[in-house]
Amino acid sequence: MHNSNRVIIRDENYDNKTLRLNETLFSNANGYIGVRGTLEEGVPADFSTMRGMYLAGVYEIIPMKQAESLCNLIEKKQTMLNVADTQSIDLYICGERFDMGTGELISNKRILNMDEGYTSREVLWKSPLGNTVKIVTKRMTHLAIPQLFTIEYSVKSMDFDGEIVFDSWHIGDVKNYSDPTDPRLAAESPSYLTVNCAQAIDNSTLCVSSTGVSDISIASATSNILIGEDDFIDVYDNTDDRRVCTYVKAHISEGQEIRLVKFSTFSDSLKSEDPGKDALAVLQDALEEVKTDGSGLSHLYNRQTEILKEFWDQSGMEIIGDNDLDLAMSFNMYQLFCSAPRMPGYSMAAKGLTGEGYEGHYFWDTEMYALPFFTLTDETLAKNILHFRYRTLQKARENAALLGHKKGALYPWRTITGEECSGYFPSGTAAYHINGAVSYAIVQYFLATGDEKFILKEGAEIMIEIARLWLDTGNYDRKGRFVINEVTGPDEYTCMVDNNFYTNCAAAHGMKWMVRFLEMFANTPEIISLKQRLCLTDIEIREITRAAENIYLPYDEELGINPQDDSFLQKPVWDIANTPKEEFPLLLHYHPLHLYRYQVCKQADTVLAHFLFPDSADAITQEKSFRYYEKITTHDSSLSTCVFSMQASRLGLHDEAVSYLGDSAKLDLLNLHGNSSDGVHTANMGGSYMAFIYGFGGVRIGEDGLSINPFLPKGLKGYSFKFKYRGNLIKVTVGENEVTVELLSGKEVEFVHAAETYKLTGGEKCNIKQ
Predict the structure, then answer these.
(1) Most exposed residue of 235, 256, 503, 616, measured as fewest CB within 10 angstroms of its CB?
(2) Which of 492, 623, 630, 656 is catalytic?
(3) pLDDT band, very low/low/confident/very high, at 231 (cuts 50, 70, 90)
(4) Are 513 and 615 in contact (CB under 8 A)?
(5) Is residue 254 among the annotated active site residues?
C-alpha cells in the first residue's frame, strides 16, 4: 500500500478475499447513492461478491418470524435494497472477453483519491491471444449532484490494431447479498424488486422497479458516450424486459486510447412523484453539462474537488510521525463525509452506503459515535441526522406504547424508517440506552453550535418525550432510589439487567437537560406552545427533576469501581486469556445465555459512561474501573477500542491511549475484525475521530464552554486538527514543547487550557508552552 496527500494506492491480488475487501474500501458514496467497488466485468462463479448499488432510505419490508408469537414482538423488518446494476461493462478485444482470470495479468492496482473524490482501477493485461491493453476505470458518485454516478472506462492498445466492443449493461433484476451463518447479514437472498420496465429511450436506458410491500418505486437511467472515436455503433438490445445492453463498437490502433463514459442517475418515490422522469431529467442535465464543457467529465471532476477542498479546509487533520495513522484517520473522515445524508430526515447506517452488513439499519452508533464528527465540522449535516429522530418521533411514541409505556417515546434499536427491526429483544429492543444517545447528541450539538432554533423547533420536544420514557420505565425502590430495571446496556454480552450504570447515567443526563432547556427558553412562544400541546405540567417536570436527582448509580466499595449493573460482580470471570483465538467473536461461538452468565464484555460500557458523564464518578473510581474492565473486555465490537483510547487519554494513561487508538483507527484499512468486506464501520470511524480530538487533542465542550488540553503521544512528532465551535473555525497544532491555537475564521472564541483562560479574535493565534 502506498499513500500520499490523502491518496491510497493498493496493488491488488486477483483472489476472492482481496476482491471482497476492496469492494468496500474502494466503494463510492455521496449520502444518497452507494456503489460497491466491484469489477465492471464481474468475477468467476466460485467467487463471493457483494455486487450492490444502494439508495439512502430505500428499503423493503420482509417477514421476521418469531419462534413464539408473544405479545407485540416484532415480526417484520426493513432491509436496504440492492436497487440496480449499472456497473457492469463487458469489454471484448478482438473477440476475446476481458477477464483477469485468463491470459496474463501484468499489473493491477486500485486507487482512492480522497482529495478529488474518485476511485480507479489500473490494469495491464495480455489476452490469451497475445493482445496487450491498459485499462483504466475511474468512478465517482457526485457530491454536488447526489443522483449521479459516473464510470469513465479507458482502453489503450499497447501492441495491436483491431476491434473493441463494449457491452454496457443496465440490469434491474438484482438481488441482495446473504450469509445465513452471520447474524450481521441477511439470512435470505430473494429478489425484493419487481422490474416494471427496462427500455431504451432515445440515446439512454431507463429501468423502473418497485417493491412489493413498502411500495417504493426506484428508477435508474444510463447513457454512454464514446470519446476518442467518432465512428461507432450504438445498438440497444432488450432481454426479457429486465435488462438493457448498450452495444458500442470501435476500431483501435496501437498506441490509441478510447474512452467510454457511462452516466447513471437514480431516483425513488420517497423523494419524487415520478422517479423515472426525475432520473431521466437529471441524466439529461448531466449530459448537457458535459457537452457544454466540451472536455468530458473535467467540469464534474473539478466541482467534486472543490467540494472536498472545502471539506478538508474545515476538518483536515495532519499527523506527523505515523503515516499509516495519518492515512487511516483521513480515510475514516472521508468515509463519514461520504456516508452522511445530504437530505434532512435520513440517518447513517452502521455500514454507511458501502455494504449490506446489518441490512442498512441505523443504530445508536450514529448519534453516539458518528454525529460528533459532524457536530464539530459540518453543522448542516449534523442537523440532517438529528432531524431523522424528530421526523420519526411519532413512531418512537408508538414503539414505546407497544412495550407497555403510558407516556414517552422509545427509539428503536435497529431501524430505517423509525420502526423497530430488531428480532432479538434481549440485546436489541431492551437496549433503552438508544434514547440516551439521542438526548446526549442533542445536548452536545447545542453546546457546540449554540443552535437555539433547533432546540425550540425540534430538540426540546424529543428531550421531553425521552424524559417521560425514563420516568415511566423506572421506579423508586425501598431506599428511595430511582432505579431502572430489565434493560440492556451497550455491552451486549450482558443483557436484561437491573440498573445498568451507563443507562442510568444517560437517563439522568437526559432528564436534567430536558429541565434545563425548559428553564433556558421558558418564556419563548415555542416552549409555551410546546408544553400546552404535549400537556406537560409543572408537576410532571418536578417528577422528572426528582427522578434525575435520585437515580441510582451502582458502586462497589470493596473494589472501588462502578459495577456494570446490579448483578455483574456476582458472576464468574470469563477466562479470556485461555479462550482460543478462533472462538472470537464470542457471539458466533457461544449461546447468548452462556455469555450472559459471565463477567465478559463485548465492548466498553461503564468505561464509556465515565467518559461521557465525567461527573458520575471521581477520578480514582474511573481509573480503577478502567483497569477492571480492561481485563474482561474482548473488544468483539468495533465500538470498543476507540472508547478505551479516549478514556485512557482522559485518565492520563497515554501509552494505553495510543495503543487502543491504533487498533480503532486502522480497523477497516487493515481489516482487523475480518469483516470489513461487508462494509465499513462508520461508528468506529467516528469513534476514532473522537479518540483523537477529545482524547489526544483534549477538546471538551461543556456547559461552561470550551477547553483544549492536548498531549503529544510517544512516537508522534506532532499533529494538527481543525474543528468548529459556535461558528468559529479553530486550528490546534501540537508539537513537542508547544501548542498553537489559531482562530482561522469567526469573530471571537474563548477557551481554557490548564486552568488558564485565553481569548482569540479572528485571525489571531496563541502559542502555549507545554
Answers:
(1) 235
(2) 492
(3) very low
(4) no
(5) no
